[in-house]
Design a protein that fits this description.
This protein is an alpha/beta fold. The protein contains eight helices and eight strands; from the N terminus they run αβαβαβααβββαβαβα. 41% of the residues lie in helices and 17% in strands.
Length: 201
């Protein structure tokens, strides 16, 4: 399967879901397919799943999609027992497993040598964890996860192939503030609270 084709299917289902994506070319591809201030790009390899968990717990009424990679998840496997323990029913965790650290020279990851990330997720306690082996199977898994109220983990083996898309147009700081303002507006909550200067107190 090609990651870009899978991302297209997610974009068709995502609606107003907040989407956290891992570092790498996937984020660029995703933002071309669904440009939105509701996309949050994680630049630190590994933290996608943990940040998505925090969002899912903080906004239980909102669907949160984590777009993770094999290299990223392998770097933060300890997020899986925590996600399983907290059971956020609004979290869909998708892992694109291309068996390489694509962003840093395409060295093999442990999944190229047999590590089964869906098996790890199940063993961590995530009951609804499945491999999607075909594009139709992937579409079905995403579609049912988007309408379900269960924590769901979907693994997809994809080719190590990038789609040529433009670079991400904003830096981390702007992405952070745009994302927060988007959540504030769409959830009608205040997240950033600015302290008044002492002279106004
Ligand atoms: Mg990878």
């Amino acid at each position: 399967m090609k990651r870009f084709d899978c991302l297209k299917l997610i974009a068709a289902e995502a609606k107003d879901a907040l989407v956290v994506s891992s570092a790498g070319a996937m984020t660029l591809e995703w933002n071309v397919l669904r440009p939105s201030d509701g996309n949050f790009r994680v630049r630190t390899l590994g933290l996608c799943s943990s940040i998505a968990l925090g969002m899912a717990l903080g906004l239980p009424q909102r669907k949160i999609i984590a777009l993770d990679g094999d290299g990223s998840l392998l770097m933060n496997l300890c997020s899986l027992p925590t996600i399983a323990r907290m059971q956020p029913g609004n979290l869909l965790h998708i892992v694109f497993d291309n068996e390489v650290y694509e962003a840093s020279g395409s060295k093999k990851t442990a999944t190229a040598c047999g590590t089964d990330l869906v098996g790890v997720a199940r063993a961590a306690g995530i009951k609804k964890a499945m491999w999607a082996n075909t594009i139709d199977g992937f579409a079905q898994a995403v579609s049912s996860a988007m309408t379900a109220d269960d924590l769901c983990f979907v693994g997809a083996k994809v080719t190590a192939e990038r789609t040529d898309v433009p670079p991400y147009p904003i830096d981390e700081v702007e992405n952070k503030y745009r994302f927060i303002r988007y959540v504030e507006k769409t959830e009608q909550i205040a997240i950033i609270k600015t302290n008044l200067p002492a002279s106004y107190a």
